[in-house]
């Protein structure tokens, strides 16, 4: 649901000589990325798809656990974070969706994957969680908000488009982020717009260069 964004950003970073590892937001992917950051293999993190927190909060099947979004901040690794796919919780086939969620906005992505739109209240909690994690960061951190949609399904004409839900997410982040520790960047695009991806990659490269300069000094 955020693949175009990731592809644009990866291509832009590779064009500038960086080796890019892509981690899929499947629970395992998030945990693997966090562990490699902890082990010192990662110089910068473009954490655009934070959807694993939806599954951790609501009870989906692709949670990366409660420590997602902590490693980069703890180890002072430059990070650019966004709200990719925070509109959805992941479940398996439709008949495996818990009964309590059957009346929610569900989308059959394919026979094996059913997606559920996050609610206004869930987006408030997600905003609080992300802000709390980022405010603890010890290194360079930026948060980028795509104001016209956080996934392929959260744009005009698509089934998860939710202006109220997104506004709650964005407003909570605006209110909770410590502006002295986290740079907040807002763009009037959806997350899969090439301009958003390139801006995110450029911001990360800028932060990495400055971080390297500071370390040498």
3D structure, described in words:
This protein has helices at residues 3-15, 28-38, 52-58, 71-74, 120-135, 163-176, 194-216; strands at 45-47, 79-82, 88-91, 106-110, 113-117, 141-146, 183-187. The mean pLDDT is 97. Helix 5 (120-135) runs parallel beside helix 6. A 4-stranded parallel β-sheet has the order 1-2-6-7, with helices on one face. By secondary structure, the protein is of the alpha/beta class. It has 7 helices and 7 strands, in the order H-H-E-H-H-E-E-E-E-H-E-H-E-H. Strand 6 (141-146), helix 6 (163-176) and strand 7 (183-187) form a beta-alpha-beta unit. The protein is 41% helix and 15% strand.
Helical stretch tally:
7
Q: Largest beta sheet, briefly? A: 4 strands, parallel
- Segments where pLDDT lies below 50 for 5+ residues? none
Numbering strands along the chain, what is their spatial order in the largest sheet?
1-2-6-7
SSE-based structural type: alpha/beta
- Say how many strands there are: 7
Order of helices and strands: HHEHHEEEEHEHEH
Quote the distance from N terminus to C terminus.
Answer: 41 Å
Overall geometry comes to globular
Task: List the topology elements.
Layout lengths: L2 H13 L12 H11 L6 E3 L4 H7 L12 H4 L4 E4 L5 E4 L14 E5 L2 E5 L2 H16 L5 E6 L16 H14 L6 E5 L6 H23 L1
Parallel strand pairs: 1-2, 2-6, 6-7
Antiparallel strand pairs: 3-5, 4-5
């Amino acid at each position: 649901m955020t693949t175009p964004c990731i592809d644009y950003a990866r291509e832009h970073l590779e064009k500038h000589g960086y080796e890019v590892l892509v981690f899929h937001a499947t629970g395992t992917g998030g945990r693997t990325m966090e562990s490699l950051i902890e082990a010192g293999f990662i110089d910068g993190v473009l954490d655009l798809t934070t959807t694993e927190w939806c599954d951790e909060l609501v009870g989906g099947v692709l949670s990366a656990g409660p420590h997602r979004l902590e490693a980069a901040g703890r180890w002072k690794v430059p990070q650019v974070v966004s709200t990719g796919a925070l509109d959805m919780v992941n479940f398996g086939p439709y008949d495996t969706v818990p009964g309590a969620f059957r009346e929610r906005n569900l989308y059959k992505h394919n026979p094996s994957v059913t997606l559920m739109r996050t609610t206004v209240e869930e987006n408030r909690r997600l905003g609080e969680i992300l802000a709390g994690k980022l405010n603890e960061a010890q290194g360079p951190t930026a948060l980028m908000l795509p104001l016209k949609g956080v996934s392929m399904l959260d744009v005009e004409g698509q089934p998860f488009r939710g202006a109220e839900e997104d506004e709650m997410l964005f407003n909570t982040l605006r209110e909770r982020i410590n502006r002295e520790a986290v740079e907040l960047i807002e763009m009037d695009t959806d997350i899969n717009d090439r301009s958003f991806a390139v801006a995110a990659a450029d911001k990360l490269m800028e932060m990495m260069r400055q971080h390297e300069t500071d370390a040498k000094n």
